[in-house]
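step 4 of 6: structure.
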Amino acid sequence: MTGSVLSDCEVLVVGSGAGGAPTAALLAEAGFDVLVVEEGPWVPQGTVVPFSLEQMDRQYRAGGVTVALGRPSIAYTEGCCVGGGTEVNSGLYRRPPAETVDRWRRTHRVAELDPDELIAIAREVEAELSVGRLPGPATAASEVLRQGAERLGWQHDEIPRWMTYPPGGDATSGRRQSMTETYLPRAQRARARIVSGCRVVRLHHQHGRATHADIERLRPDGTTERTTVRFRHVFVCGGAIQTPALLQRSGVRHHVGRTLAVHPTVKLAARFPDPVNTPDDVPVHQVTEFAPALSFGGSASNAGLVALALSDNWSALATRVEQWRHLSVYYAAITSEGRGTVQAVPALRDPVVTYRLSRRDRELLGSGMARLALLLLEAGADEVYPCLRGAPVVRRRADLAELTQRYTASRASIMTVHLCSTVPMGEDRQRCATDSFGRVHGTSNVYVNDASLLPDAPGVNPQGSVMAVAVRNVRHFVARERPRG
Amino acid sequence: MPPAPTPLLTESVTSAPLRAPGRAGRLSAPVAGLLLRRELPGLPAADVATVVGFVARRIDGLPSPLRLGVTLVAALFRLLLALPGGPGIVRALAERPLPLVGEYPRLVRSLGLAFAFETWPDRRADGSPPP
């Protein structure tokens, strides 16, 4: 291994996703010398099929196989590439809900958290990301949700996405306006430097002031090279798992990694008389009748993912995979009372992640599974296959009682793609790890600016909330460090 | 397309190269093969090897705490496989939803099935090629 001081900077930004990218762009545009260090690789859009195993291999941590241990364990995914999770997620956009913002202000004493300011920022983000609705009809898989909800009289809507569409394009022709298409090029135009394939191992600090970072790069031949980068300020934007892990490795532990919040999710596959499957896209409709506690939507459903959905009962359901074009996978997601932990462990590269569902969470997931099965039947499904060991095939309403009877959380395949709240912000030092603008308590120049900050999971797709809070916080930093006049 | 990021050093990593399986993967391969042949009895032998290779690589790429646990359970299954009647014991154990231990065959099964049907989406349910 070789070591050298490679490049000093004024601000080190760790991570290039929904928090890191706008952080880097706004800081660079304000005249700061910014270095962005991203652990994952650079994978240009269009070079991998969305939701494919190749994408999981190249753009997800651990090939997409990451688990929060518990009873039951919860599978989760983390983007690990330039642009982070924004390069691989569904692209569905929700503004931070007003009632959620109000709750954060109250429960965590987040100062100056103005819902109107966040909405104004959200509008800016929406313009930057080209957030909008489909240019034409939704896919058949998405229409299933709309039709089922309408038949039941349940509230539903089409969620806008950050996509641009070519003239005359349809629902599947969109180009994702992820961070590599938007804020990262902005950052580079403002002379920020962005490096990929490098992991920040540790931040060194003394008397509350961080001074430099150890950075490790894994070479293609498997050897590592270590570098030191000095900075005046550091923004840690590695996401709800890696941000607390880095802080813990660096000796920063106060309320760090103790309050992981997620949206636990159960899935069902459903078969329809006509083909519904869209292999490389996801439905844009969501059913919000029971929101924020419970919401329904559609998942990626290529043939491999359909097989995965059937795998818990493969011996009974294997033949259905041959009709995968008639199947699509749907989810029921809840807001959770439970919480989890992220704990860095010496000598292990990755943290241990745990999650504990409350009794209410378990029951709500079961209720969600049954209600979603009902919706899919109403939408015309001839069979519904809950992702639950020993689940019955649901063909009619009368089968829902048996599904409810067989359901236990320990038999269900529970997963999540929304992780938050591991380094919560606010002035309540009994529960918060950072101040109201992301500066880590007890430090003068260490900031967090990603999903870790959110006091709890917002009950909607969280990227909009993450970005609005990140922009707010960076502007506060700039105003303090570079006051006008 | 936006410009590629400036590399920190003389190279920037664009994708992880395929490597030979590590310990966790090597321990898992025989058990993965046994379980996958049970789930997909029609899968040609060469394709079984391809799927097992994928499963082994994924297991090697697990986060370190998970990989540690999986390595221990994989070693247990490997020991059982070596016993007289081992394949039957392993298959029977794989059917039981045991805490922790039962998650290993579930992991192998889910990885294997996802890979097989994404790679060959028009295969029959038993993994055999279409007529």
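step 5 of 6: annotate
 - The two ends of chain A are 47 Å apart (CA to CA).
 - Chain A touches chain B through 68 residues (CB under 8 Å).
step 6 of 6: archive
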